[in-house]
Amino acid sequence: MVSALASEATLLLYDGSPFHPDGNALFDYADAEGMTLFGTSAKYLDAAAKAGLQPKSTHDLGTLRTMTSTGSPLAPEGFEYVYRAIKDDLHLASISGGTDIISCFALGNPTGPVRRGELQALGLGMAVDVFDDAGRPVRGEPGELVCTQPFPSMPVSFWNDPDGAKYHGAYFDRFASVWCHGDWVTRTEHDGLVIHGRSDAVLNPGGVRIGTAEVYRQVEQCDEVLEAICIGQDWEGDQRIVLFVRLREGIALDDALTDTDQDAHPPRVHARVTCRRR
Fold this sequence. Notes:
This protein has 278 residues and is an alpha+beta fold. It contains 7 helices and 14 strands. A hairpin with a 4-residue loop joins strand 6 (96-98) and strand 7. Helix 2 (42-50) crosses helix 4. It is globular, with a radius of gyration of 21 Å. This is Acetoacetyl-coenzyme A synthetase.
């Protein structure tokens, strides 16, 4: 489906599985329409990498200047895949915001360097910061993504919420008069952000807080695993991490996953053991 926005620009939309019939549908589309900005998701890029797609070798992509990734954190390995297999002279922008704010708290900067695993810049017009549990700004360590001042696209109320209780509970209960977005992030020395996952999904085994994205980053390096989701489960007075995986066809989830004797198993098992150790 193609919809004209203006004489200078055209919005390209794709409806259907991007992996039918062979995974190249979106890259075919990019070449056919002279696409300049390719908007996608971290999950799509991970799936393309696992499918062995090499658009740099199979497509021209001469007009493509920018690729944006959202939906979930783009792992450092995702950055490497884009520049290795898709295009090396491309501005890759991992961005993060929300439908509710119609905007981004972190986005790309075409004039600045792209660092693997890092969202480049804080959103324009956004007083973005990272708070610890006591509401103090922190750098170089994980905390809550907040916005300390009102911003142009901030919603002001919810439907069917006459006293504003649901609205206040969604964003302002955590820190007084400060928008708390619910992302667990680290603000870097470059004023970029590394997103570790949703703060309400942070795992806490043995009192050590772990973002779900940190788990997924390791699991996604296992070619045998197509998809995964992890949860925290209260267990014997503590919390344990339970990981659910969908494996490639023909791969079995067996006791070898917990075996640390790499010499006793073939390479397929070695990769799985490595992920477990990480």
